[in-house]
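Help wanted!
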Amino acid sequence: MALNDNYLDYPLRRHGYDHEHFEWSMLSQRPPITWPEGKTLAVWINISLQFYPLNQRGEPFKVPNGMTMPYPDLRHFSLRDYGNRVGIYRVLKALAAHNITPTFAINAQLAEQTPYLIQRLKEHGGEFIAHGWNMDHLHYGGQPLKEEAELVKRSVETLRRVTGQPVRGWLSPAKHQSFNTLNLLAENGIEYCADWVNDDMPYFCRAQSHGKAGRLAMMPLATEIEDQFVMSQNLHSEDSWVTQVKDAFDFLLEESREHGGRLFALNLHPWLVGQPHRIACLEEVLAHISGHSEVWQAPAGEILDAFSTATEQT
Amino acid sequence: MKEHLKENLKASLKESLDVYDYWAYDQRPKIEWPGGAKVAFWVAPNIEYYELDPPQNPSRKPWPHPHPAVPGYSIRDYGNRVGHQRQMALLDKYGIRGSISLSTALCEHHPEIIDMCREREWEFFSHGIYNTRYTYGLSEAQERAMIRDSMETIHRHTGQACAGYLAPALSHSERTLDLFAEVGEELFGAKGGLYTCDLFHDDQPTPVRVRSGKRFISMPYSLEMNDTIVYAVNKVEPRQYSTMLKRHFDRLYLEGAESGTVMCIPTHNYQVSCPHRIKAFEEALEYITGHPDVWVATGREIAEYYTAHYYDAALESIAAQATTARREG
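Answered by r_m:
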């Protein structure tokens, strides 16, 4: 039996997008901007600190890098926990050696349970952004609005309380959202979201806060050069990861010289890149991206502020 | 479904679609490309639109997780917002006109991209309406209407008579090639519906039987060199892709001295144009176009040249090979 004819109906076939979240715009067609002090490439180093519960529900799907074995999957649980106990301290040393001010995306439950870690991250310096509750509390289409609203609120409020920071940014676990997520973020005073990987510059999207029209910034945090994507999903070697990150950086730096400001966003996971055999690769990457006169390294919120200032001027 | 109905359905499936005959690579009439080129080289950028919340199809899920599939949707959007321009700049640099495998709804969604490509006299061919609407489960009339819609859309926005087809998301029916050839003939006569990119059985064009009897061919498009297959399915490292492309070319160039071959690089602006991959792609383009005996062409140009000069000889050769095989068997 054939499909219903409405399978060939396309009610959203129109100029722009098949959704209303933001405007269609090609990067090459936008007026060029420069970052503070005439820099052309903004560098955002994001450290994702995550808690993968042993009693994973997998609702509505099992998150990548989560539990895969029958309960209790101690090997994956403890290997991820490694990042928060050991890996992060190696990563912090590497960041300090290159004077990098990172952005910490941290699961709120982890932040609440590890006051010493929070203390050390604050001492190191950097911006905290919300990363949901934990890696087994996903945001997804079909999730009851009330449930997601509570989850966002609890995550953001907890992180604000334990860090003492305003917490302006949000990264969803597995970058997964529902159709309500952007509005819920705006309602909780979040100013930017890192989930949509569709640009090499920040841009603004629509978000309703308590029924009133407003806006939220998108700060695209590239997935394809993430340590976990390259080494854990694609199973590429450490050396290849270093090459890919350097190639990406070199290309964006060159493009920024010719076409105006660009954003280089690198997401890192201490449970992966903080391993003894990988940390030197991170150090090599950080050395490569440091010391360029056109590069401005800053936390995501500062990059957004500079972007807002620059775009208001044009 | 009742068991006996399932059995009936299974029994009606064909062991082979039987649209082309066996034709050994080592016994064919020599192909000579224009200017004495050994390889006809074409680049086929897929410019696609995936919907954020497409309808479900009983045979295939459009996205792996509940909608909105932000990760999958947004990286494809990256291709159109950011990647397209980068790939186009590279193709300009190496004197290549792309042959676009087009989700034709993109003409409505992102006409800015269509305009840029039209100005460069790139070719547009049909890749369905959306890459999230599959052929599976469509009746013949529905599939015909979808194909017609896609070809009319291309014509309306570019003035081009669509010559080629790559089924949306490589979703086919048993009638797909017949319908494409028929609709092409109805709309544009001999100028439309000339080739399919859906078959991967050869490194040279080959005749394909369609029920209308139209002179119709398969154009080598290569899944093996397709960046999405390479990167997302086979998970190849970017610089290895560059090596693969060069090796693929080297062998086709070598063999092309005996009889002309076709090399295609099917791309996606969200794969090759990512900052960590574009260098590897450029190296391959520089290498390939740096050889003297390469005919840099579009899908239509290769198809028309082949059909005009070698189609009849191919049919004769295929028939002769079959006769010889029968006699010797």
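OP: Thanks! One thing I noticed: Residues 70-93 of chain B form the longest helix (24 residues).
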